[in-house]
Structures are given as C-alpha cells and as structure tokens.
Write a structure and sequence with these properties.
Blueprint (H helix, E strand, L loop, with lengths): L29 H25 L3 E8 L5 H8 L8 E5 L5 H4 L5 H4 L8 E5 L8 H4 L22 H18 L2 E9 L2 H13 L9 H7 L2 H15 L6 E5 L3 H17 L11 H5 L1 H10 L5
Parallel strand pairs: 1-3, 1-4, 2-3, 4-5
Length: 296
C-alpha cells in the first residue's frame, strides 16, 4: 500500500489545479481500502471522545468541490463511527432572507462547533468567493453599501473577502478550533460520467438537477476561482488539502488519514485527570457502591 502523508496533499505554495492529479494509486483493492477506512475512522472517533472530555479544542472540517465530487458520501463514510453527539454537519445552500440580513460570514460563525466536537461544513464560507464570483449578480442580494449593480463591485472586492476569510479562520484557530479544508479535485470527465449515472439509474434520478448542467458550463471559471482561493487562503493555521477525487473510496481514506494524523500531532489533547482528592478516595467510593443492595 502507498503511504498516505498529509504533507503530500497539503497546499504549501501556489498550485495549478490543471496540473494536480485527480486520481491516486493507493496500491490496494477496494475491500482493503474500506477496511483501512473503518480502522481509521474508529481511531478518529476515539480521539473525539478524548477531545470531548478535554473540552479545549474543536475541529472544523471544510469540504468544497464541484457538483458530484462526493462530499455527501464522504461525510457519511468518514464519520459514521462517531458518537452522534460528537459531530454536527451543516450544508450551506443559497442564503435565506434571515441570513442575508447579516454579513456573509454570520451564518458560518454561528454554526461553528462547540469545544470537544467536530463541525463539518458541506460547502462553506468559500462559496462567497466562488459561486458569487462566477455569478457576481448574486452579490446584489446582500444589499452592500455602494453596490447597486454588478458594475459597482470594485476590483479589489474579492481580495478583501479573502483577507476577511483568512482573518476569520485565524481568529477561530487562535481560540481552539483546528481548521482543515479539503478540495475534492474531480476531473471534468468523471463528473460527466457521474451525472450520466444519475440520469441512467432510477434510484439516483432525484440527485439530478438541470442546474448541474448549467453550472458545468462554467467549469473553467470555477477552476480558476478555486485555484485562486486555495492559493490565497492556505495558511499554516488553516491549510488546504487537494484530494484526488475521481475514486470516492480512496478520497475518503485520504481525508480520514489526514484528520487522524492532524489530531495525533496534538499531544495536548488528552483525558483530564481526576482531582487528587477524589483520586485518593476512590476505594471508599467503590466500597459505598459495592455495599448497596442489588435489586431483586
């Protein structure tokens, strides 16, 4: 099996997505991949239990990718062995009327995970420099000062947004949130095949929307926006990882391995010790319980 190292997928310098692979030969068959994923996610789940007891850190997992890149199934398979109280998933769709009455980061801020828990953002605050950049007319819904038509959007608007996102992530990191961002890098041909399967297999028809084809027409625009956003916002405190996503099973294992490796690199995440006074009286507490009469 090919060793999976987080650094091999981490963005540490400017990348060109067109030169990044969408496949990764892990050297084992599908059954072995699933077996290794099961072992890895159980270890992550155990670490989350320790994190919950420690109550100092939270983890934010950000998932981005083109339509059909496998975000939903990755969430299902990577986190299925978690204690349900330990992970909260938020899927961000088009902002509703309440959300539009606040700045664009508000709905993401209020969804951040509590200490001791994992939060998964399925589509994230980066939609605000991706979808809105490809379709700048959406910005008009935010009622921003000085912007009444698309032509009013200043040239440095997107640069400022990425600075704001960097500051947002730096702030939550400094307050105990471990931030990991994954771009599921899908080839255009693989997306075509997955969209066809949605149309050809009746049980998957519900997943298809004509809007998928419309957005596919903006493929190059999205790739350019993703590339710039990743390059501008991959920081030590909130790194991006580009995950080859043409094979879903392999992508899930890579993401799980990176999460596990990251948590294992935080040796200060540990179960709290009992107070010395409580510890010194453990035998007495046990004796009290052992003397209780058993129910008939």
């Amino acid at each position: 099996m090919t060793t999976i190292n987080a650094d091999d997928f981490k963005v540490g310098k400017n990348i060109k997505l067109s030169k990044m692979p969408t496949t990764f030969d892990i050297g084992i068959d599908k059954d072995e991949v699933e077996e290794k994923l099961e072992k890895t996610r159980k270890k992550i789940g155990d670490l989350q239990d320790v994190m919950y007891a420690d109550n100092r850190y939270s983890v934010l997992i950000c998932l981005q990718g083109m339509d059909t890149s496998g975000k939903d199934s990755l969430i299902r398979e990577v986190f299925k062995d978690f204690n349900p109280r330990g992970v909260v998933v938020n899927s961000f769709k088009t902002p509703n009327s309440t959300e539009l009455e606040h700045d664009y980061l508000w709905r993401h801020y209020v969804a951040l995970p509590e200490r001791g828990k994992f939060g998964v953002f399925n589509r994230t605050h980066y939609e605000n420099v991706l979808v809105t950049r490809v379709h700048p007319e959406y910005i008009l819904n935010e009622n921003l000062p000085g912007i009444r038509k698309v032509e009013d959007i200043p040239k440095d608007f997107w640069d400022k947004r990425m600075d704001q996102i960097n500051n947002f992530e730096k702030h939550i990191f400094q307050n105990g949130t471990i931030v990991l961002k994954f771009f599921l890098h899908l080839s255009k041909e693989e997306q075509r095949q997955r969209l066809l399967r949605r149309l050809e297999e009746a049980k998957h028809n519900w997943k298809f929307s004509p809007g998928d084809l419309k957005e596919r027409g903006f493929w190059d625009d999205y790739q350019n926006c993703y590339e710039e956003a990743i390059n501008e916002t991959s920081k030590k405190n909130a790194p991006w990882f580009v995950i080859p996503a043409d094979d879903k099973e392999t992508a899930r294992l890579i993401v799980a391995k990176i999460i596990l490796e990251t948590l294992e690199n935080h040796p200060d995440i540990k179960e709290p010790e009992l107070d010395d006074d409580v510890k010194s009286h453990i035998s007495e507490y046990k004796a009290v319980l052992q003397k209780e009469e058993k129910p008939e």
